[in-house]
Structures are given as structure tokens and as C-alpha cells.
Amino acid sequence: MKKMLILGAGTAGTMMSAKMRRALPADEWQITIVDQDDRHIYQPGLLFIPFDVYRARDVVKPRSRYIPPGVRFIVSPIDVIEPDDSRVRLGDGTLLHYDLLVIATGSRIVPEETEGMTDTGWQTSTFDFYTPEGAVALRNALDDFDGGRLVLNVVEMPIKCPIAPLEFVFLADWFLTVNGTRDRTEIIYATPLDGAFTKPRASEILGHMLEEKNIGLEPLFSTGSVDGEKQVIRSWDDREIGYDLLVTIPTHMGSETIENSDMGDELGFIPTHPNTLQSKGWENVFVLGDATDLPSSKAGSVAHFQGEVLENNLLRIIDGRELTEEFDGHANCFIETGFGKAALIDFNYDVEPLPGRFPVPGIGPLRLLQESEMNHWGKMAFRWIYWNMLLKGAEIPGIQSRMSMDGKWS
Questions:
Q1: Nearest CA to 258 among 108, 156, 73?
Q2: Do residues 244 and 149 touch, judged by C-beta distance below 8 A?
Q3: Chain-wide mean pLDDT for the chain?
Q4: What local confidence, expressed as pLDDT, does residue 363 receive?
Q5: Are 189 and 246 in contact (CB under 8 A)?
Q6: What is the pLDDT of residues 260-291, one digit of tens each?
Q7: d(CA 80, CA 133)
Q8: Rounded to whole angstroms, how far apart are CA atoms 82 and 389?
Q9: Radius of gyration of the CA atoms of the chain, in A
Q10: CA 301 vs CA 43, 138, 378: distances in Å
Q11: Residue 209 and residue 215: Cα distance in Å, rounded?
Q12: Global model pTM greater than 0.90
């Protein structure tokens, strides 16, 4: 019997296990998925915990609940991948051999990479919201916050869900307004980018939204250190921003397993063919989701679009056929803007976000690059879609893996 091994039971890995179990005969292929724990996190929901929209129980569930029947699930740390021998060594020394390997080990925050970040003030005046623990601690801090300077700082790119920092400051503006402390709070968005976002047109529009909400933008701020005693962040070019409450998006890196295996770049992301999702080093190794080094967003929608392409290419390599270069970097992201509204962007490697209607051209009901209440409810509905459709590898009606220009205008 041939063996397919999937490393990582997050969004990307769980979805692929469902797709491949349906696609491959159970009497010919054994599918195994491995992760270090049995805790699946709905990562888009972490953003809402600090604002009392969601609780931790809404975004954390057992991984085992979503692994499909017929797929072996192993809970274990992954020590090292030995791709030249087509095997993986687990933390207890167990060896897992494979014919095909799918790496979906994701990314992790590494706050200790920034000088001083985890020293004085960590989880008392400096917080993240990219972990359940950080999001809950930040919720408690915001409940007690009575005004001052709130700074959201992105240390460096790439990060998971690159629009989440913008969403945080928009939601903070709403939350503090409702709580009656906005008029005595200064909100600063400090980013290493030259504007509000990575794509020029969206950056301009989102920058205007920041201005309208009286949120200060500090572009080209590359964080070098955090001084928790003085409550100051410093850039590499010696600029300083003081804070009363610091919300940080720390450095992101790939899994420690990838570092141990010497398969990644300097940040631990795996060199991956941008259109086939095959690793650049080994023909029987494919990479999915945040674990890639691709210049696409590290977001659940991207993993979903990659999954359709990867399913096809895994079946093609099994049949001895040439791989298709179908993945175009497609990303589709809601941007929560506060006060019951959200925006929506849809883009890929080559085409930046454009205005229009989505997913039905001319009809919508969702608006691209514009705020609307319908977009907000689309974002809220996605949690149900995530648990009940996306993780099961199901098709989402009206959403295609390749970006369409239908309904967009420039």
C-alpha cells in the first residue's frame, strides 16, 4: 500500500486530508496526518476576542473532530523531515515513510526575535492577538484601558492574514467609541510597509479610511527593539514611538520542524513552485498554506484556493502526468472596519485589488474595496463556512480557485 503523509492538521492540512481521502482508493493509499496537539484554532476569529465579539471557545475545537474517517491522525511533535530518504522522524523516534509528502506546518509568531519584546511589559502593556492566550490577555487589557496612546505595530513581513492589523485598529476605533474612551485615545498604526497595505490601490483606499477614523499611520517603521520600562518602540533608523498599550504583530517564522530539517529559507518557509505548489527541492514533496515562501497572503482563503490546485497535481503525479501551473496567488479577504461594516478585497500575484461586485458580476451582493453591512455579515458567516465546509474540503458556491476579472473594473 502506498503512503501519503500530511504534516500539520491546521486549515490547510485538514482540508487536504479530506480532499485526498475522497479522491484516493482506501485499499491503495494510506493517508496519515500528524500534528503536535489536538487543538484546532479558527485563526480569523482571534481578532474578535479582544473586542468581546467571540470567546476562546468559539475559535478553539479538537482537531480530531475534523479529521475525516479513513485518515490516521497521529498527535506527536515532529522532530525532523528527511526528504532524501522519504521519511519523517517524530518526537519519540518513530519513523514514518511516505511516497508523497504534503507539508502544511503553518507559521508561528516569534516575539523573542525582537530585542526587549518579551521582557518588561510582555502581556501587561505589550500584547499579541495571534494566539488564543494573547487575544484573551489583550481583551482584559482593553477592558481596563482608560485612554492614552494605543499603538499597533507590525514588526516585519510576511505575517499571517496581512489585513488583520488594519482590522484591529478599525475595530479598536469602534470599540473605544462605544466604551466612551475614544476621544481620549490616540491610535497609531506603525508598519514596515510604505503605506497601509501591500498593494498600491488598496493601500490608498485603506489609508483614507485610517485618516477618516483619525488613526495615525507611521509607514516604513522597521522595529528594532521594544523598551518596556520606558514604553517605547524603536526602529532600526532610531525613530521612537511611545505607547501606553502596545499591540504587536511579532516576527513570523515557519515551523521549527522545517528549521531542524534544513528545508527552509532564513525564516523557515519552504521554497515552493509558485504555480504547482511542488517543493523546489524534492519532486515528491508539496507545500501548502503558510508553510510556503510564496509572495501570496498567508491566509485561510489562499490555502483553500491552493487546495484545489494541489489536489489535482497530487493526482497527476500519481498518474505520472505533468503538473499543471494553475495556482495564481488568488487571495480573498474581508476587512472588518467597525460599526457593523466591512470591506472586501480579491486579488492575485499579478492583479491588485479592484472595485466591483462579488461573487456575481454586477449583482454582488458583496462590494469590493467598499465598506458595507453585507460585507460584515459575510465575514461573520464565514466562521460557519469554515467549520462546516472549508475544513471538509467542500466547494464553496461561487468561489473559484483562480481569480476572475468578472465584475471588477479598473
A1: 108
A2: yes
A3: 95
A4: 84
A5: no
A6: 999 999 999 999 999 999 999 999 999 999 99
A7: 27
A8: 33
A9: 21
A10: 12, 26, 14
A11: 9
A12: yes
- Which residue matches cell numbers 501587561? 124
Q: Answer positive or negative: Cα dihedral of 309, 311, 315, 320.
A: positive
CA–CA separation, 4 and 98 (whole Å): 6
Asked whether residue 395 carries a pLDDT value surpassing 90, the answer given is no
pLDDT computed for residue 147 by the predictor: 96
Walk me through the domains of the chain, giving residue ranges and CATH numbers. Answer: 2-109+253-318 (3.50.50.60), 111-251 (3.50.50.60), 331-390 (no CATH)
Distances (CA, A) of 332 to 335, 359, 403, 410: 10, 11, 9, 17
* HEC-encoded secondary structure of 26-90: CCCEEEEEEECCCEEECHHHHHHHHHCCCCHHHHEEEHHHHCCCCEEEEECCEEEEEHHHCEEEE
For helices 300-318 and 11-23, the axis angle rounded to 10 degrees is 30
| Residues 6 or more apart in contact with residue 380 via CB below 8 angstroms | none
Round to whole Å and give the CA distance between 291 and 255: 8
| Contact yes or no for 15/390 (Cβ under 8 A) | yes
Write out the three cell numbers for 277: 505548489
Q: For 237-266, how does the pLDDT look when each residue is reduced to its tens digit (9 = 90+)? A: 999 999 999 999 999 999 999 999 999 999
Yes or no: say if 299 and 161 are a contact pair by the CB < 8 Å rule.
yes
Q: What is the pLDDT of residue 396?
A: 83
